Each structure stands twice: as C-alpha cells, then as structure tokens.
Amino acid sequence: MKTAADFFKPLAIGAPEPIRELPVALERTIHFLPPHIEKMRAKAGQIAKTVDVLLGNLEDAIPIEAKEAARSGFIEVAKAVDFGQTGLWTRVNALNSPWFLDDVTEIVAAAGNKLDVLMIPKVEGPWDIHFVDQLLALLEARHGVQKPILIHAILETAQGVKNVNEIAAASPRMHGMSLGPADLAASRGMKTTRVGGGHPFYGVLADSTEGGEKRAFYQQDLWHYTVARMVDACLSNGLRAFYGPFGDFQDDAACEAQFRNAFLQGCVGAWTLHPKQIEIAKRVFSPEIDEVLFAKRILEAMPDGSGAVMIDGKMQDDATWKQAKVIVDLAKLVATKDPERAAAYGF
Ligand code: GLV
Ligand code: MG
Fold first, then answer.
1. What's the CA-to-centroid distance between 208 and ligand 1, angstroms?
2. Which residues on adjacent β-strands are paired with residue 218?
3. What is the reported pTM?
C-alpha cells in the first residue's frame, strides 16, 4: 500500500501532476464509435455534437483483422475533430491482448493531448491500474502531455467485483467505472445470453393462497447488487459510476428501465451503442423536471442547509438538503449544455 505522502506524486519525471479532484463534466452518454469504419469516422464530428462523450472502441465488437485499422482510425478522428465540450475517450484492448501495448503507445504519442480518458476492459484488481498508471506517466512525459489522461475501469469479471474498492482507490488517475454485464455474466457463470437488462426467470413468486389463485411473479433486477457495489466504491473514492451496454436495440423501454435503475442508484451515465440510445440516455440521466423544481424549493427554504422545514407535508432537514443539492447541481450541469432543459428547470 502506497503512503498518503506519495499518492499524488507523478510516476515519471516530466509527467503532469496527478489531479486531486475530477474535472466537472457532464457524461450522460458515452457513445461507442467503431473507428475502423470509414463512414463512421466521417460522421464522428457530427455525432460528437449530440453526445457528452465520444469513445473510439478498439476492443470487443471490433473484428481481429480490423484492430490496427480501428486504432489508426481513432487517431485520425482524434486529430481531425474539434470536440469542444464533448469528452474524447477510447476503449483499448485488454492488458493481456496482442494489441494493448500498441494501442496505448501509439494513441498517447499521436493524440495524448486530446484524449481525456482511457477505458480499460476486464480490470481484475489494483495491480492492473498500477501498471497502466505507470505506463501512461512514462508516455505522457515522453510526449509532453499537459494534463493526466484518466483511467476508467470496466467492472466485468468476478475478480474485479471482488476487488472493486481497491480498484477505485488504486490511483489519483481513476475517473470511474462502468458495469460490463456481458463479460461479467460469463465470468460469473450467470445463465443468460443477454447484454444487460432483466431476465424473465429471475424474480420472486408471491405466496400461495388457500384458494390456490394464480401467484404473481415479480421480475427482479439482475444487476442491482453489482451496480450498488460499484456505486459505493466509486462515490466513496470521488469517482463516477456508469451503467455499460444494453444490447437489445429492439427494446427501448427495457433499455430505459435499465438506465433509470442505474441513475436512481447513483450512476451518472451509460454507454450508447445505437444512435437511438443517445436520446434515451440523455433523458434518463438528466434529472426529472418536477424533482428539480422540488429540490430547488428545499434549497430555497433552507439557505444554509440546517434546521428543519415542512414542504407540502414532507419533512426536510440537513440530509434532504444534501439530496436536493445532488439533484440541483446535476441540473445546473445539464443546463450548461441543454438550453431546453435549462428553461424547464428554471435556470
Ligand atoms: C462490456 O464490455 C460487457 O462485457 O458488457
Ligand atoms: Mg466486455
């Protein structure tokens, strides 16, 4: 375990100072772009205007014969596009893959000053973060990168979930985590072929009655436990938590329900793999208008956050003031990018 005195020291001579607090950023949608496809590269600048984060995907879903093309395609997009307020991330291949080393070295060399976040798949423990942390520091120093490139871990192995707190606390370079339900299901031996969402057989059966009426079956959220663990690990370390992919592009309602569960539990965004998921994510991860208006009333009624008041018959105190502040702070952040919602929130 590193001492507190050493935690914020740069890991290489000439590397930028590690950050002490995450930069404020709206990250409701992490939109996955397959950068080996020319048509998608051509659209990247346009797509970037409609999402909060554009991510060049180099890992799963990219065919093996297109891995190099995806890497060079991402570099091309990173250099060509002015991303403005939109974040630029990439998901590189796994640490043990034949592509990881070239992914990181080539991307930092060519676009290190434009890249905000490096997403690392299949993180198993803090040792994976330490390795990437050191490598990034060396590359940042070599290529004159001005601000640290942050690390985002995908939580998608049983061992990763077991070590989730240690992963979150591994480095000041940690940005956050995403739940990867597909790999995680496989790693845990869960019996589902779905990418996220519920399962019709996972639920509870209502008690039997003497009359022998048909018993109701209530479907449960398969991902509740993991999202909760991830949120606690992230938020207690000052990081952000995200839901990952939702694979059924035919079922928008189920996608929305999955995203909303994650939002209510503490996540700030989700991956969008299909263009129609962008509006779903923006809607779900922007606070509800009525919630914002009520939260504003709480803050106005208790300007210094202390004491107790009643609003519409509901008790408000220091704790509900803090809850209201979470919602109003998020609404203010959304308002910086979204004039329609800003007006509805009354900012
Ligand atoms: C994402 O990478 C997943 O495996 O779900
Ligand atoms: Mg995965």
1. 38
2. 204
3. 0.96
